[in-house]
Amino acid sequence: PPGPLQPHGLPLASCRSFSNNKIQVELDESSGVAMMKFKSPPVNSLSLEFLTEFSISLEKLENNRACRGVIITSAVPKIFSSGLDITEMCGKSVEHYGEFWRAVQEMWLRLYGSSMVTVAAVNGSSPAGGCLVALSCDYRIMAESPKFSIGLNEAQLGIVAPFWFKDTFVNVVGHRIAERSLQLGSLHPAPEALKLGIVDELVPEEKLMERAAAVMAQWLALPDHARQLTKTMMRKAVLDRLVAHREEDIKNFITFVSKESIQKSLRMYMEMLKKRK
Amino acid sequence: PPGPLQPHGLPLASCRSFSNNKIQVELDESSGVAMMKFKSPPVNSLSLEFLTEFSISLEKLENNRACRGVIITSAVPKIFSSGLDITEMCGKSVEHYGEFWRAVQEMWLRLYGSSMVTVAAVNGSSPAGGCLVALSCDYRIMAESPKFSIGLNEAQLGIVAPFWFKDTFVNVVGHRIAERSLQLGSLHPAPEALKLGIVDELVPEEKLMERAAAVMAQWLALPDHARQLTKTMMRKAVLDRLVAHREEDIKNFITFVSKESIQKSLRMYMEMLKKRK
Amino acid sequence: PPGPLQPHGLPLASCRSFSNNKIQVELDESSGVAMMKFKSPPVNSLSLEFLTEFSISLEKLENNRACRGVIITSAVPKIFSSGLDITEMCGKSVEHYGEFWRAVQEMWLRLYGSSMVTVAAVNGSSPAGGCLVALSCDYRIMAESPKFSIGLNEAQLGIVAPFWFKDTFVNVVGHRIAERSLQLGSLHPAPEALKLGIVDELVPEEKLMERAAAVMAQWLALPDHARQLTKTMMRKAVLDRLVAHREEDIKNFITFVSKESIQKSLRMYMEMLKKRK
């Protein structure tokens, strides 16, 4: 169906592109659908800069009445997003840790609470914070390759997913699977992720964007107002819980990440990553 | 097993029929099982009159010690119930809207909170409020025809299922499936409804009543008291939530349904239904 | 990986056995894994003595830094545990009932809240309280024989599973399955238990201990601290609920079990069990 502000037949004129550094956003005003592509090689880490740009992009689209839905995907081969950027949590000041964590919260509050339809087209691996981005969308389609995996694997690094990562995960897969997967810090290959309900469907990688557009059209066939109120009704309890405990959650993160034992294991992890390259 | 008040071998004498307009109720005192058949053509709409009769029938059976279980089904071919009667929500007074909504709440409070065993024999399509009736029973058996569908499709009409519809749905299918199905206003064909857990089993339509009786016998083999306390323990939180917010929920409904935009879309929907006939 | 306190190559010296009456505990300090075997024939009933020994054993292991995980299984053929010992609930004093119930609570608080990895190797039937023990572990492996069944079948005896049995069950299988299974007091044969999610996997009985050890090794590959905090985050709400209502829950049990009708049905059940032998 046509977007509310644009006549048909103007595909070129109706496509507006935001110029950003880390995320490419293209809004097709004729369909009302924005395409958001993570393009921060090598692994689309959620750095402070990336998160800030992500939140601002979401806010712009949210306030643009021509935009009704967003498809989130990656422009980097084989990776959707590797999650929080560990360099932001290593050897920085307490103020920096606080600013970084607030940006993580802000991104999630905007994405999980978005009134737009959000579809994740997961075209690569998606550990930790990358998995959170996918879990926060309305619908998840993943490229069917068993080489790609997804999961909240924080425990593998000796860190703990915060309660609102957990709440988001439980809402998607239920308590039993979330409990096991979080404790084991599991990264689930795509076929297993489908079986557990972490993603909603798998398609061959070359069909991913086509399928995402079709799913989006199905969701946009509904009147926005009723769909938005329904989404709010489903997600409000979990969103409100972070809003009510936001400062406390930031303090917890700062205390945790400032520990020498955690700094040490993060440094070791970063060095391991460097050697891998 | 024989009912507590009636000797065996008196099938005619033990069968008591209530004379109602919209719902036929027959209690077999020898088995303790009541059959409740919706007979309000063309589509068993939940009108104020229907809902009032439904609640009174449930109350009578609840207070009849000879009755331990109720099988709910339809006497109208191809439809279980089409849900709330839209004519009750269109062009009526604020007082009427309030009275109607209180009757919807009353029906659900009685059915979801019933101490009797309740089995839904879903022998036709069951959208919106019709789906709520089925979801509120202890067990759902559906005729296996893919022509019959079931779901809380309120969003399709531009309206929002109230929180206690949602709570009932989440208790049956979990958060992820409820969130998607409610946002899309999905009507699920019987085979899909089984897969999602919306109904507990499918049988060929001609075997539906036989299977419902067998399931009922299995549930009635348990001692009533322990089963009833267990049911209360499972459902109390969700029932209490409506009881605590009942007046507020009525006010919300009145405000919502009185909006000109909602009146307009309901009128359009009714005209579409008329043309279909 | 080796345990923190013992060098390699000393398998005999590193195996410490606690001498108990009802439960055999062997800690392999080289792996950090304790084996806990119920050996209270004929059916591993959870008597006051058994429960007290269970809680003390768990406490000892919890406080032993050499122990990181516990595998719980049975030394009695064909039965994991038959659940609460009915003789403790029959013809005893009010004081005794209170002491017994506090011991049931204590066992669950220690097991469900354990910071160790807990794996149930369910090598026989496991009704009622026996099922609770399995449900309270982190992971459940069951011998695949359909002769073995598991479930919270309290309703079959005319009694009601307390709210924290229910909460534990809902966390494992979700609301819909818990509601039906609890109301019917179902005992599920192993293959059905797997399908419903009551157990996590089935293996041939002769491979059970081998598989339990492999699963334990997988869980112990994670750093303890992050895993423990994650487990606490998942289970705290349900644990806190009993802690907040513990005395009230004991009073409820005493009132319930002191009723003449309940005493009568428990006596009848015990006589039935005696005749079976």
TrEMBL record, chains A, B, C:
Pathway: Lipid metabolism; fatty acid beta-oxidation
Key words of the record: Acetylation, Fatty acid metabolism, Isomerase, Lipid metabolism, Mitochondrion, Transit peptide
Key word Kinase present: no
A biological process term (GO) from this entry: fatty acid beta-oxidation
Protein location: Mitochondrion matrix
Reaction catalysed by this enzyme: (3Z)-decenoyl-CoA = (2E)-decenoyl-CoA; (3Z)-octenoyl-CoA = (2E)-octenoyl-CoA; (2E)-tetradecenoyl-CoA = (3Z)-tetradecenoyl-CoA; (3Z)-hexenoyl-CoA = (2E)-hexenoyl-CoA
Predominant location: mitochondrion
Membrane is among the record's keywords: no
EC number: 5.3.3.8
Any one Gene Ontology cellular component term annotated for this protein: mitochondrial matrix
Coiled coil: none
Pfam families: ECH_1
GO MF terms held by the record: delta(3)-delta(2)-enoyl-CoA isomerase activity
Family indicated by similarity: Belongs to the enoyl-CoA hydratase/isomerase family.
Assembly behavior: Homotrimer.
Job of this protein: Key enzyme of fatty acid beta-oxidation. Able to isomerize both 3-cis (3Z) and 3-trans (3E) double bonds into the 2-trans (2E) form in a range of enoyl-CoA species, with a preference for (3Z)-enoyl-CoAs over (3E)-enoyl-CoAs. The catalytic efficiency of this enzyme is not affected by the fatty acyl chain length.
Name of the protein described by the UniProt record: Enoyl-CoA delta isomerase 1, mitochondrial
